[in-house]
Amino acid sequence: xxxxxxxxxxxxxxWAEEKARAAGYASASEYLAHLVxxxxxxxxxxxxxxxxDPVPVSEFxxxxxxxxxxxxxxxx
Length: 76
Prior knowledge:
Structural class: mainly alpha
Helix content: 55-70%
Oligomer: single chain
Mean pLDDT: 92
Largest sheet: none
Shape: elongated
Number of helices: 3
Strand content: under 5%
């Protein structure tokens, strides 16, 4: 694994260390690496979704659920 050095404010470092402890990470470094990876994953997911073929979207409003309830209540 590669190593990167960053400079952050003392207050931000304390915040990151507290968040890391609360989330069960061994260190703020591990926590920050997780955040960077998560951001990368979100970026890749967004690109995948934007590249996908569009599909029709249905509205799920009260009328939709009322019709669904009626159809489920019908016998057979």
